[in-house]
Amino acid sequence: MTFEYHSQSKLVFGAGALSNLEALLRERRATSVLLVYSGDYVFDLGIRDHIVETVRSIGATLIENGDVVPNPRIELVRGLVAQAREHQVDVVLAVGGASAFDTAKAVGVGVPYAGDVWDLFDGTAEPTETLTVGVVSTIPGSGSEVSDCAVLQQGQDKRALENRILIPSFAIVDPEYSRTAPYRYQAAAVADLAVGFLEPYFTAKPHIEAADRLLEGGFKAALAAGRRFARDPQDSAVRAELHWLSATMFNHCWLATGSENDWTTHRVEHELGGEFDVIHGEGICAILPSIIRHVAERRPERYAQLAVRVFGADPYDLTPREAANVLADELEDFFKTLRLPVSLRQIGVPREAIGHIADQLTHAGETTVGNYSPLSRQDVVAVLERAY
Known about the structure:
Blueprint (H helix, E strand, L loop, with lengths): L9 E4 L7 H7 L4 E5 L4 H4 L2 H11 L3 E5 L8 H13 L4 E6 L1 H13 L8 H4 L9 E6 L11 E6 L2 E6 L7 E4 L9 H14 L12 H23 L4 H14 L2 H4 L8 H13 L3 H16 L5 H11 L8 H18 L16 H9 L14 H11 L1
Helix pairs in contact: 4-5, 7-8, 7-9, 7-12, 8-9, 11-12, 12-14, 12-16, 13-14, 15-16
């Protein structure tokens, strides 16, 4: 384990956390702030009014845009980049969840880049600098408030940019704000949160026991909090736990140091989201159990270990493949407890699209998907058929 860890992000967590915004903006010498968000909740919760007053109190100018959508689009980002340049924005402030944060991160790296911001997402160029980006979280789950990742869509092409330069300079998390989040979106985010502990767990490299135990503990905590949330979405203590788990989960720089993350499920889901505008967490629920059942036929070991340690599967009575299927069954039950879809049919993906999705993911069979047990085009088709 040879590594260097550094995080430039400040997390302000708890009731009244937004009161720290003025100090955070002053520390960063903000003179022109671009605010991005979506939804009336920004007004209903008083967040927008507080931001307007804070920006005014420090003598800065405010430009705002409330057009963020799920699966954020490049067209909005391009417009915001131009607007930010025109107004000499030095701080981008996002309110909401992953879609708002991804939009802000993309604008942050897009403004100082001389070319088209999409170049940074399709691999043509690497980001080298960013404007200051701050976020105010109103829904837990994605971990985007502290992550080095942004996901953006051009047409049906959905790409993820991962670079530590994208980590927000500060994140404000008041669990009270998530009380207005619609149940469907919050439940989908909870599912994504739980699965976020698994992508680095399913590693092809020799595992690190300490990392395994940390990820297992986080996964168990996410399952417990998710079930409590399903019983009472208004439970403020549960929402606080979910917000903290969200910030903890994506910080796998230290939860899973040294591992090669899998991300098979997220890569397949991104294709579904790009093609059919699927809610990310719902897409995850529809395909993950099938991925586990398929891969378990040839490489069940990591799945089996998780089933034994988290769900109590008996390693003496069950073969590794049988234990792996216990994991798939338990996850499917958890998603059902959250009242989320568990098949492609339920999220509106047509069966006749399966071949096309497989072609897109594997470049017509030229490449594979994921790291733990890479999926060929034939594998992708088999997984999606199983998920239907």
